[in-house]
Amino acid sequence: MNTPTMPSSPAAPPELPGAAGPGAAVLRWLCDPRPATAPAELDLAGLGPVLQAVIDAKLVCLLADRLRHDRAEDGLSRAMRSFFVQIVRATKLHHRFHHAEAVRIVQALARRDVSVAVLNGLAYDTGLYPPGGLRQFTDIDLLVGAADQDTALDVLDELGFTERGRGPHTRRRSTGDALTPTVSIDITTHLGHTVDPAEVRAALARAETADGQNAGGTLPVLARADALRHTLARFATRPRWSTLADAARLALAAPQPSDEAVAAVPEPVRAGWAVLHSHLPDLLPGPPPVAGSGRAKGEVAR
Fold first, then answer.
1. Is the CA virtual torsion 121, 169, 161, 117 positive or negative?
2. What does the DSSP 8-state code read for residue 70?
3. Are strands 219-221 and 208-210 parallel, antiparallel or unpaired?
4. How many Å apart are CA 69 and CA 285, to the nearest integer?
5. CA 293, CA 231: separation in Å to the nearest integer?
6. Cα 252 to Cα 246: distance, rounded to the nearest angstrom
7. Per-residue confidence of the chain (302 residues) as pLDDT tens digits?
């Protein structure tokens, strides 16, 4: 995770990569958690440009899942059906490996009395999407309090994460596994919407557990309202299709806020909500639903 900035609401919402390209309608369809008919732009006979956009956006597993449930995959060649099956299977195994590593790290941190929450990809795959490894990600993001950062890095070193990653608080280890040759851990002490240590500690105190969808072991994740604030703020500063998919699912599962909660919404969260509405304008009316707590309900049942 990068150090967050605190933006004001943009005059014009920033564009997502490829938002005006041939796959834009399909990408928005995949990000929207509500069941809907596939857009006309999903031409199975000429899938090339759309497939490239979906792969670049890390939404190919969501596309495979939608095609399977809508029986649209019947229009694909045998080789294409096999491609989708194999990539979902590989991603599921990749996620299971990362989940096991996260459980091992969280348990080691608990033995050192370090409060921690899993953020972003792994956290959302665990509790926000249907089972099957549909939320693609590459590393494990962990939130700890500022006072515990050095201890967390020491624990990672003890567990074999001795290689430096792309940032000063990123550590990696080689696994010897052909599918997942390295596992990367990113330790952060801030959230997308706040760098205040007191607010981070409060979010850690509100953390909930997610069961891992048969991956073995539970993980601490942000409470739904905290996760939504964090995700919207990240989306405002760094628009990505996968973050739009996360924000849409979190927002749809959130309760309507009180007037007091709306007044207290931080500016980065408002900015992210504006960007979300620019791409999925009919998802939810009104202000960002960031009040309340509880587990996210995930994708609407088909």
1. negative
2. T
3. antiparallel
4. 28
5. 15
6. 10
7. 544 444 444 456 567 887 877 788 889 989 999 877 788 778 776 777 888 899 999 999 999 988 887 666 667 788 888 888 899 999 999 999 999 999 999 999 999 999 999 999 999 987 788 877 899 999 999 999 999 999 999 999 999 999 998 889 999 999 998 889 999 999 999 999 999 999 999 999 999 998 655 556 889 999 988 999 999 999 999 999 999 999 999 988 776 655 555 566 788 898 899 889 888 988 877 766 664 333 334 443 33
**What is the distance between the alpha carbons of residues 132 and 233, in angstroms, rounded to a whole number?**
27
CA distance 297 to 49: 33
User: Beta-strand (E) ranges in 175-247?
Assistant: 182-188, 208-210, 219-221
pTM to 2 decimal places: 0.85
DSSP 8-state secondary structure symbol assigned to residue 3: P
Whole-Å CA distances, 41 to 23, 25, 186, 197, 282: 7, 7, 37, 46, 20
Helical residues (DSSP H) of 19-77, grouped into ranges: 24-31, 48-56, 60-69
d(CA 34, CA 43) in angstroms, rounded, equals 21
For residues 49 and 193, give the distance between their C-alpha atoms in angstroms, rounded to a whole number. Answer: 35
Indicate the length of the chain as a whole number: 302
Task: Report how far residue 126's alpha carbon sits from residue 268's, in angstroms, rounded to the nearest whole number.
Answer: 25
Long-range contacts of 173-180, Cβ-Cβ distance < 8 Å, separation of 24 or more: 175/97, 177/97, 179/90, 179/93, 179/94, 179/97, 180/93, 180/94, 180/97, 180/98
The full 3-state SS of 249-292, as one line of letters, equals HHHHHCCCCCHHHHHCCCHHHHHHHHHHHHHCCCCCCCCCCCCC
Residue entry with tokens 């040759």: 181
Yes or no: say if 162 and 173 are a contact pair by the CB < 8 Å rule. yes
C-alpha–C-alpha distance, residues 122 and 239, integer Å: 19
